[in-house]
Amino acid sequence: MANDESNDQGTYVLADQPYERDTRYIETRITRDGGDGYPVEPGRYRLVVSYACPWANRAIIVRRLLGLDRVISMGVCGPTHDKRSWTFDLDPGGVDPVLGIPRLQDAYFARIPGYPKGITVPAIVDERSGAVVTNNFPQITLDFETEWVDFHRPGAPVLYPEDLREEIDAVNAVVYRDVNNGVYRCGFAGSQSAYDAAYDQLFSRLDWLSERLATQRYLVGDTITEADVRLFTTLARFDAVYHGHFKCNREKLSEMPVLWAYARDLYQTPGFGDETDFDHIKRHYYEVHRDLNPAGIVPKGPDLSNWNTPHGRESLGGRPFGDGEPPAPK
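Predicted structure:
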């Protein structure tokens, strides 16, 4: 089947080049005033995700923490995809039960015929038209936090407080550059020099984060914010895939005491660990990135049961949900 394009997973490494992420997203926004033509409206939109993807995992977590699962439906793609599109192979008949499509590509084409760029998750689809509204993942969670406030659950945390936004934005910028995208710059580096530079930048930032979090429970302020969500989804994948598959191997996360305790603290917080699927994560990276792992073999290890061990971060104070309360159990 090597010549069947539907089974071609695509190429991720370009020889002799550093990895550059394409960030040309569909930037339409869903807002209270409907300025882009898509007003906030319960029951109108479907968030399409994969639990394998760290960018989609952010939206899954924020939707759950804020209680937006009551007003925004969610379609879940399988952990793998082919060269062109994520697919709904987890659903009966391989078709999303709300959108009625087998491939997320269909919703992109409904918005922009022949859409030439990556078919990415997360994507928000307008259920009325079946067309993608946006795949601009950094803005999706910010809009969940600021534009959908009238539909947050009672007791929802304030994930993007106005008085901390400047600091949150600054932390997010360096974490994205050096960590969230930094692991990909290691894994998809096309030369030794590109890999070395990305590796050094990644672990320098992880050391910086360890110092920051040694004396405070959360990244910004004394409650969970957007900054913690963005860092968590990378840390959750670190030992399972990035350490080995992407050669981010100076240390495992479980060998970095501060970050390991911090990650376990979040994992054990409702809305984080219960929205993390290690099986989907491992299957995606090892089965899809065939230029890194030609046989598609998924490793049996590492043992991930240690995510539920005590973390001791309560001693630093802080209140996970501020004046609010955790979401109801799944």
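Summary: The first strand starts at residue 45 and ends at 49.
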